[in-house]
Design goal:
Elements (H helix, E strand, L loop, with lengths): L1 H11 L5 H5 L5 E6 L4 H13 L3 E6 L3 H11 L5 E4 L3 H8 L12 H5 L3 E3 L6 E2 L15 E3 L5 E4 L2 H15 L6 E6 L16 H14 L5 E5 L6 H20 L1
Helix pairs in contact: 3-9, 5-7, 7-8
């Protein structure tokens, strides 16, 4: 029957190894995403596949993006599109999406190209049992009954920006950081409770101040979930692949 056939197909499927991943003739790309960046992630996936890449998506909720870092370090991927890098800030702030102290480091260590965006970086999701007194007064977005995102203040955004810079400055491969100027996820839009682009500039300016000149920062006049931003991310990543091949 259909279920048995599917099980047999899985059993007969070749096991993915770093060697087999790089030997299929199509660059294998890691892509980080979460629900509020899903539209952009799917658009990027489609565009990269049309360009001849293979894409594996990872839910950036803490566990899967740790696994992504491990697989990057083991040599599975030709490059990384880190659309949803909020796990870096969640670690700094003690949030539930924390991906540990080594998030955003593996690609730089092994020298593969990476294009990074601040998907969800201006938000944190601390456990409600660990709320600090001022957290109750923060602008927030209730994703569901269990998960609430709180807006980072400007001091926190600057602290997180310095953490990003410290990691990306160690990269031995090419890096482009793209920043949408009209919000960093689907609900971070004009009229939304967490929308504050002037405050997001604190992150952008602190990042620029601390990054090495070798790391390019591009600002895109769009929301992270807009087609224009997906196109910009895709074009930036594809522009780095020839450089990686020539290295």
């Amino acid at each position: 029957d259909r279920a048995a056939g599917a099980a047999l197909g899985l059993a007969q499927a070749p096991i993915l190894t770093p060697e087999s991943a790089q030997g299929v003739g199509k660059p294998l790309v890691a892509l980080s995403m979460f629900g509020p960046s899903e539209h952009c992630a799917q658009a990027i996936r489609q565009k990269l596949e049309e360009a001849g890449c293979q894409v594996i998506g990872f839910s950036a909720a803490g566990v899967c993006d740790r696994a992504m870092e491990d697989m990057i370090a083991e040599g599975y991927f030709a490059g990384v599109v880190d659309l949803t890098s909020g796990g870096v800030g969640e670690y700094v702030m003690g949030g539930m999406r924390s991906a540990g102290p080594h998030r955003l480091e593996a690609a730089g260590k092994i020298g593969i190209p990476q294009v990074v965006a601040p998907g969800g970086v201006n938000l944190m999701s601390p456990r409600k049992s660990r709320y600090k007194p001022d957290y109750h007064e923060r602008r927030k977005y209730d994703l569901d009954k269990l998960r609430t995102f709180l807006r980072l203040n400007t001091d926190e955004l600057e602290e997180v920006a310095r953490a990003f810079a410290a990691k990306l400055n160690q990269a031995t491969g090419p890096v482009i950081f793209l920043i949408p100027t009209q919000g960093w996820c689907s609900f971070d839009r004009p009229g939304g409770n967490v929308y504050a682009p002037d405050e997001d500039k604190a992150f952008t300016e602190e990042l620029k101040r601390n990054l090495n000149p070798s790391v390019e920062v591009r600002e895109v006049d769009a929301n992270l979930e807009d087609e224009a931003f997906a196109q910009a991310m895709t074009e930036a990543f594809l522009s780095l692949l020839p450089k990686a091949a020539a290295a």
